[in-house]
Here is the input.
Amino acid sequence: MMKKIILSMVVLSLSVHAFAQTGSIGVNTPNPNPNAALDIVSPNKGLLPPRVALTSTNSPAPLGEHVQGMLVYNTSTAGTSPNNVIPGLYYNDGSEWNIIVNVSTLNTLGIPRPAVFQLNSHMNNFLSVQTAGEKQILAPVLEIGNSPGSGITYLGASQITFTPGLYAITFTYEATHNNGSCNLSSYFADFPVGSSPNAQRIHSAVSHLSGALSNHGGSITFTTRITSNYVWNIELGRGQSGNCTGTGMTLLQKSTQLSILRIAD
Here is the structure.
């Protein structure tokens, strides 16, 4: 028993000695970093913070008060939005708990990220039979990015279902129109608004060289509020202000894209 007491006193004195010399405490190191209050060294162990069951972000419980800089690992799923908590590492800023976000918590919290779709192959003679005011569905469209929290579901066959919320939609197109002397291409997109079939038409016109060097592109952006589930077709239409019609237009793959960001409930 006496040997254990002596050994404990020796270990304690070494720790105090390290603190007295550098103002730092080292664990498994005789030379703690002088800029750290506590320097822990281990090749195969981690730091295990206190595990507690938080009740909400705006309540300090189970602590007695909010303490700025406090770090805990929350084990509970509790509270109501927007003050709900989920399991994860939290820090306290003095007035509430904040989760340290990673990919998993992004999905769980539903933090908005864009859903992205792109044309998977060239569409030759696109809008060749459509006159001003008429549309054509884009196909095939490839879903290249979508995640929980985007608010939409890709149904395939160039259809998307929007759930209620506020969205920013950007339609980017790239095309050529090798047909005679036309040098002004006009397009439009009908964006979803409110509930189906309400829509808002936005035009885009691009001037370009005629013939083989007629490459052109642009983006159409619209912010909309959806009030009920809305099934929307990915389409582009022929505008009325251009002089390019008929055959010869190619809508280009990859660079023709649709980006949808849910920005609010």
Q: What stands out?
A: Confidence is low (pLDDT under 50) at residues 5-17. Residues 42-109 form one domain. Helices lie at 2-22, 103-109.
